[in-house]
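Handout, section B. The chain below has 170 residues.
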Amino acid sequence: MSEVQELMEEHPEPRRPGRPPNAARGTQRGAVRQERLRRRPVNFDKFYVDPTKIPSHMSYEFKRQFYLGKEDRRHQIDQEMNHWKPVPADRHPEIATEDPEGRIVMVGGQILMERPSYLTEEARQEDADVARAQRKEQMERLKQEKYGSSFDRVGAKTNRTYEQYIPDDE
């Protein structure tokens, strides 16, 4: 061992003032560690609305109010044209609203909106029909396409299967 190392071991550097180690913090100044009074679950969803509080004939969805920090008025007009209306805050006092006037339910820059559920079902059916038509059109396009060199043209082969892996319990 060198002389410098021996001197350092004999005369360690004094501890600088600062935050005490974890063990010493709780006992300083007679402090008693208190448990948190309110606990939020890890998987807390701020957009959750209790389904039992939604009227049976209505459908609820959160819709954006702002886009890139600015109010998206065009989107709001589109929502009104599709029969979406803001849910009044007094109907759901259990949801904390960010609306400065307290009239509508607003959470995280999103507005809780409602419309009759039959309109929502119709819209979902229309979306599914469009998706089916797009898939069918793409399948037809793939069958018509020819791949390979000019000598061997073979149509694309498609297969529609779905497999799901389920692990064995050990």
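Note. The CA atoms of residues 19 and 25 lie 8 Å apart. Compare this with the example in section A.
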